Amino acid sequence: MCSPGEAPPGPAPAGDLPPEWETDDERMAFLFSAFKQSREVNSTEWDSKMAFWVGLVLARGRRRGAVRTCLRELQNGFERRGSVPLGLGTVLRELLRRGKLQRESDFMASVDSSWISWGVGVFILKPLKWTLSSVLGDSKIPEEEEVLIYVELLQEKAEEVYRLYQSSALSSHPVVALSELRSLCAGLCPDERTFYLLLLQLQKEKRVTILEQNGEKIVKFARGLHAKVSPMNDVDIGVYQLMQSEQLLSQKVESLSQEAEKCKEDARSACRAGKKQLALRCLKSKRRTERRIEELHSKLDAVQGILDRIYASQTDQMVFNAYQAGVGALKLSMKDVTVERAENLVDQIQELCDTQDEVAQTLAGVGINGLAEMDSEELEKELDSLLQDSSKDSLDLPPVPQKVLSASISDAELEAELEQLSVSAGDLAQKTPSASSEPKTALGLSL
Question: What is the phi/psi pair of residue 111, to 5°?
Answer without folding.
Answer: -90, 160
